[in-house]
Design a protein that fits this description.
The protein is mostly beta strands and 192 residues long. It is built from no helices and 16 strands. The protein has a six-stranded antiparallel sheet, with no helix packed on it. It has a five-stranded antiparallel sheet with strand order 9-8-7-10-11, with no helix packed on it. The relative contact order is 0.12.
């Protein structure tokens, strides 16, 4: 058991029959009344956040969570299949447990959080920036610039993002997975 004096960013514990991670916290000692801790908590399984206040000294059951590197293999009717890049063990996860799955391509890297005591996979963490090839978009027109507007483009992972008008099929672009926004063109399509 841990109490509020043990709180730190990233600490994971059981509260209200679920796993929560501390995103941010602040110890408050008001002039009147007892001290308390104001926290921002993130649900480890579902990813949503909420604000919660704990009285000073409140106890919670701390849980150890491990982040392990994996490679995305493929998707089928049984879920998304991953391989641990250290042990080469394979397993699958249901699609709803995989955050930002629209940015996963076969062979791509992903970290998976596991509850250490039960070996339960909790959630995935796709890299903040990924580089994906554009597989479908309207052709670019000579003279279009980055300030000229946007058009939709489908990436090799299946995600659709808005890209500048000069981007063509075959170009590789960098995308921010947190916002789902285009960042830059990494390489242009080869014209052979």
């Amino acid at each position: 058991m841990a109490d509020t004096s043990d709180f730190r960013n990233g600490m994971t514990f059981i509260w209200k029959d679920d796993l929560w991670e501390i995103v941010d916290f602040l110890h408050v000692k008001p002039g009147k009344g007892g001290a308390f801790v104001r926290t921002t908590l993130k649900n480890v399984r579902e990813g949503h956040e909420l604000e919660e206040t704990f009285r000073a000294g409140a106890e919670v059951e701390e849980v150890r969570v491990e982040r392990r590197p994996h490679q995305f293999l493929y998707k089928d009717d049984y879920g998304l299949h991953f391989m641990n890049t250290e042990t080469y063990e394979q397993f699958s996860m249901p699609p709803e447990q995989v955050e930002e799955r629209e940015f996963l391509k076969e062979g791509g890297d992903v970290d998976i959080l596991f509850r250490a005591d039960t070996e339960e996979p909790l959630r995935t963490e796709v890299p903040q920036k990924v580089e994906l090839e554009v597989v479908d978009t309207t052709p670019g027109v000579e003279g279009n610039t980055a300030q000229g507007g946007d058009k939709p483009a489908t990436l090799e992972s299946g995600a659709t993002v808005d890209v500048p008008l000069f981007i063509n099929e075959g170009d590789v672009v960098r995308v921010d997975t947190g916002t789902g926004e285009y960042e830059t063109r990494v390489s242009a399509a080869s014209t052979v």
